[in-house]
Amino acid sequence: MKKILFHIPAALCLAIVFALASCEQPVTGDVDDTKGEEQLSEGDINVKFNVCNLEMMPFDDAVYAARRVTDIRKACTRIELAVFKGDRRVAIVRQDKGDKVFGQVSLSLDEGEYTVVVIAHNGEGAATLTSPNEIKFKDNKVTDTFYYCGDITVDSDSSYDLTLKRAVAMVRFVAEDKVPAGVSRMRFYYTGGSSTFDAVNGCGSVNSRQTEIRDVSDAAHTSSSHYDIYTFPHSDDRPLNITVTALNSSGGIVDERKFEDVKVERNQITRYSGIFFGESPGAGRCISITVDNEWTQVDYSY
C-alpha cells in the first residue's frame, strides 16, 4: 500500500498553534510583572477592597490639604493590589489614575487565609509584587509611595476599607541662591537607602545605589529652588550619604557637594537648605537642617 506524506509549511504550523492558543481561557497562574499584566483568581467568594484613606503627613501643602487624604487620586497615579496564600500569589490587580474604579478592587477568592498587599505610588510603570517582602519598581525609581499589608480570613462575601501608610522618606534640598545660567540639571547619587520595599516589615529590603536627575526650571535661575528625592529607609535607621552635582547641558560638572550621615525616617522630610553655589563654584557656603514631623520634616542649613 502506498503511503501518502503531507508536508505542512512551518508558517502554517505556527498559525495553527496561535489559533489554538487564542481559544484558551485567561491564565490565572504566574504573570510577567515587568509587563504590568494582571492575575485574577477564580474563587466562589466575592471580596471587595476600598483604598479609602492615606495615613500621611503632607509633603506638599499645596497638594494635600489635610493629614488624611480620602481621594487617593490626589496623592498617587498607580495602585497594585496583590493577594497571597502562603508564599504563592493568587491574584494581582493593577490600576492607574484614569480608571473609573481607581482605588476599588473586586476579586473572587476561595475560602481560606490570605495576605493582602497594596502599593500606591507615582512610578512610570507597574510595580513588581512577586513577594510581600520584595517589592520593586520600574527602573528602581522611588516616588512618593504608600502601602498596606495585612491578613484576612475569607469565608463569606465581604468588603474591606484599607488605610495605607506612607512607605518612603524624603530628602528635600533647597538652594536659597540662584542656580547659575549654565546649570540645566541636578544629579543626586545616594547610598544607605533602598529602592526595594518590604511591605511585611515596612522598610527597605536591599542596599541600593540610587541616582536621580532633576531638571532645573527657568524660575530656579532667578530665585530659590528645591529638589526632592525618595528612598525606603532600612529598619536599622542607617543614614544616607548623598552627592549632589550640578550639571550643564552637556553633562559636565559645574559644582558638587557631598552630604554624609543624612538621617532619614519613614514619613519624614529631611530638609537641607542654604547657599549651594555661592558667588563661584566651590565658594564658602552654609547649610541648615530641619526635620518635619507632619510628613515629619527635619531641617538642616548648609
From TrEMBL:
An example Gene Ontology CC term for this record: cell outer membrane
Keywords (A to Z) from UniProt: Cell outer membrane, Lipoprotein, Membrane, Palmitate, Signal
Domain of life where this protein originates: Bacteria
Record's subcellular location: Cell outer membrane
Family: Belongs to the bacteroidetes fimbrillin superfamily. FimB/Mfa2 family.
Keyword Lipoprotein: yes
Protein name per its UniProtKB record: FimB/Mfa2 family fimbrial subunit
InterPro entries per the UniProt record, alphabetical: FimB/Mfa2/Mfa3
Residues of the signal peptide: 1-21
